[in-house]
Every structure is written in C-alpha cells, then in structure tokens.
C-alpha cells in the first residue's frame, strides 16, 4: 500500500529494500495466518505476489504490515508480509480509530474570522 506523503518521514530510508527483502524471505506469498480476521482462509493465506487472488480475479500486491501500526518500529517481529486484502482487514480497526480522531479534531477546530 502506498505510503501517504505526510507519513513518509516515519519510515526508514531503506524501507523499500527492507520490505523487498522480507517479501523474498516469504517466497513472495502472504504470511497472514488468519490474524487479519477475514475468515476466508485457514492457515497461511495462499495469495502470491502478482498472481490472481483466491476467490477473485484481482491481482495480488504484497505489502509489508507493521503489526503495531507504528512505521518507526521496523523490528522483524513487528513486520509481516501481507497481501493487500489481508493488510486492509488487519488495519480495519486502526483506520476506523484514525477516522474518528480526525473527525473529532475537525469538529473542534474554531474557524478563524
């Protein structure tokens, strides 16, 4: 998943190389073991990079997920190679919390006048 420009500084300069290295170690296959809670696969997700995704005709793009949602924390145990579907489902609650916080912050802004 693309890194938002405002978050780019939170990633190490060698992020692309680190992410690629982890994907190579994973044999270019999603490492999700069900923790995404999609409930569409048992055991390891079968999706492989640039191949057709199981259950759909979309093409798989592998991503590297930060399990604790902190891009600065690039310890190997905090990173997992995931297909875009597993990654989006894994991050679902985190994204919902971010949306709520943004909405609340926007509601509390006092217009300058």
Characterization of this structure:
With 113 residues, the protein is α+β, with helices and mostly antiparallel strands. It has one domain (5-107). The protein has 3 helices and 2 strands; from the N terminus they run αββαα. The protein has helices at 15-25, 84-90, 92-107; strands spanning 62-66, 79-83. Strands 1-2 form a two-stranded antiparallel sheet. The longest helix is centred in the C-terminal third of the chain and has 16 residues, at 92-107. It is globular, with a radius of gyration of 16 Å.
Give the SSE string: HEEHH
Q: What is the residue-mean pLDDT, rounded to a whole number?
A: 88
> Can you give the helix content as a percent range?
25-40%
Low-confidence stretches: none
What characterizes the major β-sheet?
2 strands, antiparallel
Strand order of the largest sheet: 1-2
For the CA atoms, what is the radius of gyration?
Answer: 16 Å
**Structural domain count:** 1
